[in-house]
Amino acid sequence: MRKVLILMSAGALAVPLAGCVSTATSIVKAPFKAAGQAADWATTSQDEADRNRGREIRKQEKRDRKAAEKAARRHDD
């Protein structure tokens, strides 16, 4: 009878302890996840760099086009 009671007690404790282990694991992993996120924020991926460079090129082309149109209007007057 005693063994059955001990086994039942152990089974009843296993469920809450599983939650504690999961929480403890999350707490231990948190600093590593934060460091990884900080590294992602601090660096620029190649895709981001390409996208930013393309945006700058399009802005420069737009400025050049506007300047050429302005010069053409001056020349026509």
The percentage helix is over 70%
E-strand count: 0
Query: What overall form do the CA principal axes indicate?
Result: rod-shaped
Number of domains: 2
Low-confidence stretches: none
Sketch the topology as an H/E string, one letter per element: HH
Mean pLDDT: 80
What percent of residues are in strands?
Answer: under 5%
**What count of helical segments does DSSP give?**
2
Topology:
Blueprint: H1 2-42, H2 46-76
If you had to describe this structure to a student in words, what would you say it looks like?
The protein is 94% helix and 0% strand. With 77 residues, the protein is an all-alpha fold. The longest helix is centred in the first third of the chain and has 41 residues, at 2-42. The chain starts with a helix and ends with a helix. The model has no long low-confidence stretch (mean pLDDT 80).
Summarize the structure.
This protein has 77 residues and is mostly helical.
List keywords for this structure.
2 domains; rod-shaped; 77 residues; mainly alpha
